[in-house]
Amino acid sequence: MFSVEQAKQMAAKLKASLELREHKISYSAALEMVSHQLGFRDWNTAAAMLRPQPPESQIQFSKPIPILRIFDIRKAQEFYLEFLSFHVEFEHRFEPHLPLYMGIVRDGLQLHLSEHHGDASPGATIFIPMKNIELLRNELHDKHYGYGRPEIFKQDWGDVMEVHDPFGNRLRFCQS
């Protein structure tokens, strides 16, 4: 989604571009055109609906990416790629035969898996808010994984399904 500042910049560029072609329009007319291009009725509606541009001096965080410790690449691939249906985003080794650092992703959830000694401790728990937890449970059951058939438990804060990887880490999926 565009910010208000980005839409204003688009309007200024549109106005300047049209002026180069000898089509003079006002800045407000350019704002109206941009708002229509973005799917809004008019500039006032667009300005109310578009997100404000945060000040550059304001601290901003992005979504965290948990790092989980692994010890056996084959077991990690069987669990995360085959059972949980993640996809490899990247793999990194400083040299052949050195520990693996791997990024995996599935439906907006990113995890990093590391064989490096200092990156993480085994036995971590990751809380993963989600939707359609029953679909995930059914998908996992259909795979007939020999080391786990997770179930959903009702808690005060939502439906929870915990999955344990081969390295002692827990992925706690929760639908509130």
From TrEMBL:
InterPro entries named in the record: Bleomycin-R (IPR000335), Glyas_Bleomycin-R_OHBP_Dase (IPR029068)
UniProt entry keywords in alphabetical sequence: Antibiotic resistance
Pfam families with a match to the protein in the record: Glyoxalase_7
UniProt entry tagged with the keyword Iron: no
Gene3D superfamilies: 2,3-Dihydroxybiphenyl 1,2-Dioxygenase, domain 1
SUPFAM superfamilies listed in its UniProt record: Glyoxalase/Bleomycin resistance protein/Dihydroxybiphenyl dioxygenase
Protein name, UniProt field: Glyoxalase superfamily protein
Keyword Transport part of the UniProt annotation: no
